[in-house]
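Before relying on records like the one below, remember that each one covers exactly one chain. Contacts with other chains, cofactors or solvent are not represented anywhere in the record.
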Amino acid sequence: MNNLRSATKFINMMAVVTTSLFLFLIALASEAKEPPVATKYYEKEFDNSVDALPKNFKGHDARAIFKTLVKNKGFNKTNFESDNEYAERIAKSAESIYLTKTLPLNAKLAFVIDYRYSQYKSNIYHANSHVIHPASLSNYRQQLFLGGFDGFLWDSKAINRGNYIGSNAYGVSKRIRSLKMDQTWISFNQMEFVTHMGIKDFRWFQPLGTQSEFPMSPEDAMQAKDNMNMLLIGTTSPPYYVKEHEHISPTLDKPNDADIDISAINMDIEQIWFFDSKSGRIYHRLVSKHLNAASSSR
């Protein structure tokens, strides 16, 4: 690209990624401390009745499951199928479809959302009120995909492709950094999620939102500050996966030229846990109202 747009003319990314996501992606590539590569992911179906998680729990491998979903052409909805017909067809073949060698399509999955992908250096503790805010919640983005799905960032990798000099129509030159980014997200239907989890509004996801905090003693917070991550628990749901590519053009204020491959597994999220990534201790659980209703009716 030889020409730069004016700093006041940001490209319109709202169809797929928001301006806030644009800033977040670049921050990940340049400033954020990336989590260590997982050595071994969970291979069994997740049991959400456990009192604690294994030490250094990694959860399931979202990237590997996404690749399996893409390879299975049966997930592609044809132009001649209604939404109900598509859902019925997948449901009938669910027992014969596997996400991994051991996990069927309807298996209970658990994906770890690592706070170190967020813009925060640690989880945020408010000593006066004895509550903690999970930094992993800021990995959340609204309207991430064209289908209207929201998502939590599971993994992000960036390759620096070098630099070049670009200029705008007024002759202003700037050194541009070129990036190739590969991101994996856990996506979900916004309105269903809000209804199921009993969330009143989206302040729940904001860094200082009152609904995003929960009580914790100072002693526990000292340990949780640098170790607490979030766990998304649920099953895959239509459209099962989303695959998109985006390009972010540079501006004078943000001289980054980025190509982004976006991959996502779509889920029906039933529970959210906040846990200690080292010890496996579970600090807090949010459970779908549907599950609570089912439990109380037994």
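The chain is about 20% helix and 35% strand.
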